[in-house]
Specification:
Number of domains of chain A: 2
Structural class of chain A: alpha+beta
CATH architecture of the largest domain in chain A: 3-Layer(aba) Sandwich
Helix content of chain B: over 70%
Order of helices and strands of chain B: HHHHHHHHHHHEEH
Helix content of chain A: 25-40%
Distance between the termini of chain A: 37 Å
CATH architecture of the largest domain in chain B: Orthogonal Bundle
Number of helices of chain A: 9
Largest sheet of chain B: 2 strands, antiparallel
Largest interface: A-B, 25 and 21 residues
Oligomer: heterodimer
CATH topology of the largest domain in chain B: MetI-like fold
Number of helices of chain B: 12
Order of helices and strands of chain A: EEEHEEEHHHEHEHEEHHEEEHEEEEEEE
CATH superfamily of the largest domain in chain B: MetI-like
Largest sheet of chain A: 6 strands, mixed
CATH superfamily of the largest domain in chain A: P-loop containing nucleotide triphosphate hydrolases
Chain lengths: ~350, ~280
């Protein structure tokens, strides 16, 4: 187990900046996720930690040792590639034995370790097969097995579940977490899927276009996103964003969204202090919107446009004039076209400065 | 409907087979005729209409062995081909690997090497003659080997770069992360996967070199004589000695035939590793 730290790391490929001035601390033994869309720089970061890619600027430390110039084989890291990178001309046994052979471990011990690992991953019957004879899920487990046999300091995983079909992905997510916990190494897991990251990681770094936007525990990212990108990326269905203008009328302050006005006099002081502009984005998560069939105090009138039932809850798309909002509520016997009244949970609204994208509260 | 489809497919299949048979005949016939001619008596060789049934004879073969330097030519050509393969394969492999994995020269260097292939050898023949003569390299097996190796490399490099593109770099990187040095990763992972391509490259280099006539004709005399030149010797002032020429040609085809058969096993074995992914 070892901590990994990246200090002001930058990497460019020709004209494209993959990673820019990035600093990150990954704690010893934690399950850390790199979350971000395609092109965010996750794979580049993993490759730099592994040592197959060298940063243009900055330093990478593993276990407080600067490893930036140390070749991959001496770093005691292991990596599971998105394609699994199984050696096609070697059997499953040989693939898993490879790291141990490179360390000149005696044959008898190799056999023991490989067989034990295969047992944990339920791939024991496949040991004499070639990769091309395996299914996607089996290949993925062999890739994981090869990474596990060595007990490395850091285990890097590049979107390992992406190439699996949806059902298998959900199954593997649970198994994965269990296996990784037993591994007792520091894990760095790259994924574009926020659900994977949120359910598996101790902490997550949200990346976009080579920069870290926020890194924190899943709960903190959910409750206190620092900017629009993180707020919109974490949580499913995504947070609703409403463009508003800060207006004052009769000594009360409102967020004017054209179709409705939302009073926020009690928070006005704070907003005015931190905001650089009158343009505000009001954010509210679908699960923080309350819907009622009868008119309530301070409720906003809306029409149901689409209803997606999910068991005893439903995803409801509502229209307030031109604004569409998504709410995640208990099934109320609603149907499309119904008139309903909605309220935002005042404790849970998020206010963003539209110009900078930064969260004000 | 079903029956119509079946008949249609049968017709298409038969046309396909007929086409293949025609091509096969066109390709194999000259070879077949050459072998036939080599066992015909002189009179039968030039008779019109061409004779298919005749009394076979080995007098052409005896002629070849007694009156030409066929043994020396065969040995020389074999040595040259061996030398060329020994030089071309390792050098091209490493060059192709460098181009493919490290992009040495940023694509320009690679292009430059490729353009050498487009260079008509005959344009180089006079300069090479002058250089070889001045350095005393004429009629020398080593210099012919080097020259053939040189002219074969652009093709084999280009071939291997193409094949390397099919082998994902992921595999080598995974090996390096798991404890291999760059060279070990190359030797243990890349090399087994590119072996069939190397066999193909070797065969091409061998055949090009074996059949090479121009350089051999201009730059060798009697010491470094090659099979191509031996065959050329059957064009005499008295006329073309078809019988012995065919016998010589038949003999000269045999080594390449054997080589192709030997290497074919490796190509087939390599390809059964299946998809690399």
């Amino acid at each position: 187990m070892a901590g990994v730290s990246l200090k002001k790391v930058s990497k460019k490929f020709g004209d494209t900046t993959a990673v820019e001035d990035l600093t990150l601390e990954i704690k010893d033994g934690e399950f850390f996720s790199l979350l971000g869309p395609s092109g965010a720089g996750k794979t580049t970061l993993l490759r730099m930690i592994a040592g197959v890619e060298k940063p243009d600027k900055g330093n990478i430390c593993i276990d407080d040792v600067v490893v930036t110039d140390i070749p991959p084989k001496n770093r005691e890291v292991t990596m599971v590639f998105q394609s699994y990178a199984l050696f096609p001309h070697k059997t499953v046994y040989e693939n898993m034995a490879y790291p141990l052979r490179k360390r000149k471990i005696p044959e008898a011990e190799i056999k023991k370790i490989v067989e034990e690992t295969a047992e944990i991953l339920h791939i024991s019957p496949l040991l004499s097969r070639l990769p091309k004879q395996l299914s996607g899920g089996e290949r993925q487990r062999v890739g994981l097995g090869r990474a596990m046999v060595r007990q490395p300091k850091v285990c890097l995983l590049d979107e390992p579940l992406t190439n699996l079909d949806a059902k298998l992905r959900v199954e593997m997510r649970g198994e994965f977490k269990k296996i990784c916990k037993n591994l007792q190494t520091t894990i760095v897991y790259a994924t574009p899927d926020q659900l994977e990251a949120v359910t598996m990681a101790d902490r997550i770094a949200v990346l976009d276009r080579g920069r870290v936007l926020q890194y924190d525990t899943p709960d903190s990212l959910y409750d206190h996103p620092k900017n629009l990108f993180v707020a919109g990326f974490i949580g499913s269905p995504a947070m609703n964003f409403i463009d508003c203008t800060l207006v004052e009328k009769n000594e009360k302050t409102y967020l004017d969204a054209a179709e409705f006005k939302y009073e926020i006099t009690d928070k006005a002081e704070k907003i005015r202090k931190k905001c650089t502009t009158q343009e505000i984005v009001l954010g509210t998560r679908p699960e923080d919107i309350e819907l009622d069939v009868s008119r309530q105090k301070n409720a906003i009138q809306a029409d149901v446009s689409i209803l997606e039932p999910m068991g005893h809850r439903a995803i409801v798309h509502v229209q307030i004039g031109k604004i569409t909002l998504v709410a995640n509520v208990n099934l109320l016997g609603l149907k499309a076209g119904d008139r309903i009244w909605l309220r935002f949970n005042k404790q849970k609204i998020h206010i963003f400065d539209k110009k900078t994208g930064i969260s004000i509260m | 409907m079903k029956i119509e489809m079946k008949t249609k497919r049968r017709i298409v299949d038969s046309l396909y087979y007929i086409g293949v048979i025609i091509v096969l005949i066109a390709v194999l016939f000259p070879f077949f005729w050459m072998v036939l001619t080599s066992i015909k008596k002189e009179l039968d060789v030039l008779s019109i209409p061409p004779k298919i049934f005749f009394e076979p004879t080995i007098e052409n073969y005896t002629f070849v062995f007694e009156r030409s330097s066929i043994i020396k030519g065969l040995i020389n050509s074999l040595v040259i081909v061996g030398g060329v393969i020994a030089l071309v394969i390792p050098i091209s492999m490493l060059a192709a690997y460098s181009f493919s994995r490290f992009n040495v020269g940023g694509g320009h260097f690679q292009f430059y090497i490729l353009t050498v292939r487009m260079f008509p050898p005959i344009a180089a023949i006079v300069p090479y003659f002058v250089i070889f003569r001045n350095f005393g390299l004429l009629d020398n097996i080593i210099s012919i080997t080097l020259l053939n190796a040189l002219f074969n490399m652009p093709f084999t490099i280009w071939l291997l770069v193409g094949f390397l593109r099919e082998i994902p770099q992921d595999l080598e990187e995974a090996a390096m992360i798991e404890g291999a040095s760059r060279f070990e990763a190359f030797r243990e992972i890349t090399l087994p996967l590119i072996a069939p391509a190397l066999a193909v490259a070797a065969i091409f280099a061998a055949i090009f070199t074996w059949n090479e006539f121009l350089f051999a004709f201009i730059l060798t005399r009697s010491e470094a004589i090659t099979v191509t030149r031996v065959m050329a010797g059957f064009y005499t002032e008295r006329g073309i000695l078809w019988g012995p020429l065919s016998a010589c040609a038949t003999l000269c085809t045999v080594p390449m035939f054997i080589l192709a058969l030997m290497i074919q096993k490796y190509i087939v074995r390599g390809l059964t590793f299946g998809a690399v992914r």
